[in-house]
Amino acid sequence: MQNESHERKRNSLGAPGSRVRWGLVIHGGVGVVPREAMSPELEVEYLQTLEASLQAGYEAMEGGGAATDAVVESIRVMEDSPIFNAGRGSNFTADGVVSMDASIMVGDTLEAGAVAGVEGVRHPILLARMVMERCQHVMLSGTGAEAFAREMGLEIMEPGYFFTQRRWDALQAARSREARGDTVPNTLDLEAGQVSGTVGAVALDPEGRLVAGTSTGGAANKKWGRVGDSPVVGAGTYAGSHCGVSCTGWGEYFLRHAVAHDVQARMAYLGLSLREAAHQVVMEKLEADRPGLGGIVAMDRDGFVEMCFNTQGMYRGWVDQEGRIRVAIY
Ligand code: ASP
User: Fold this and answer.
1) What are the residue ranges of helices labelled H in the chain?
2) Residue 198 appears among annotated catalytic residues
3) 83 CA distance to ligand 1 centroid (A)?
4) N or C: which end of the chain has fewer CB within 10 A?
């Protein structure tokens, strides 16, 4: 019964180019469990967590909060869930630790905050917000960022909190692949969540403020302090005069193509709609640079919602000003 209702919701994501007066769009990464391997129970868990995330973001704005609150609250729900590659369910590095990245940006003011390579912080997105609002820098990394988190009184968790069997298994699989001399993740690895699974959100609030945020555990088996696109303003996250964008996918490609900013730039300089700009960047430019796999969620100033990906699926959903929630995976 529960599955039937989720089946209906999956099929009612809304027509392309859906529009809200105010609302929120989220993703839980393109590293989806392949359809044939997805159990009904796990599928329900994914869809319910996406719904809970959208509900938290919606309630933040309905209660008078700004788009920043909505982005942070919705991402916090996914960071607390063990099934997404962010916060608690993060991937492990080659050293077997969890090292997380996050960023947030406000469209009107271009204020931004980002953290890279932080350990132990329960909600990296909250830390990114603190960087944006409470310090003179835009991006902090490693032990310095962790010291700042403690100064801000953020919750710090023991390593055991971040242990999930699934991500541990993903690390072992990545290690064996590497031992075979195969260092390039393929599509299947991405789909199986070994590379991807980041979470993100873009909100437009009733006052017209547009904010984007992204949080991730990054790629499994990452080395040498590797940082992907997610905490990099302009690559994994961007909010500007025209739109807000949050990305997920193979970070190295998103960095090289400055994906999030490119969507905004095509709108600003070429006069494209959000849909046209998003599709050009993800379905043409990234697609042409295989394996530039991934996807984005985005929203523009007029409330048009965009979710596009060049992979088998992307955990995703959106909510409008009436609180109507739609979620989908494939
Ligand atoms: N883009 C992220 C990274 O490369 C991974 C993801 O989207 O899941 O760190």
Assistant:
1) 2-10, 40-62, 67-80, 124-134, 142-151, 165-179, 187-191, 251-256, 259-270, 274-279, 287-288
2) yes
3) 15
4) N
pTM (global) more than 0.90: yes
Q: Which CATH architecture has domain 3-328?
A: 4-Layer Sandwich (3.60)
Report the separation in Å between the CA atom of 207 and the middle of ligand 1, taken as the mean of its atom positions. Answer: 31
Nearest to 25 by CA among 268, 273, 330, 315: 315
Residue nearest to ligand 1 atom 4, measured at CA: 251
Q: Where are the domains positioned within the chain? A: 3-328
pLDDT digits (tens, 9 = 90+) for 274-330: 999 999 999 999 989 877 889 999 999 999 999 999 998 999 999 999 999 999 999
Give the Cα separation of 103 and 212 in Å (integer): 8
Q: Which residues contact 71 (CB under 8 A, 6 or more apart)?
A: 24, 57, 104, 125, 201, 202, 203, 211, 212, 213
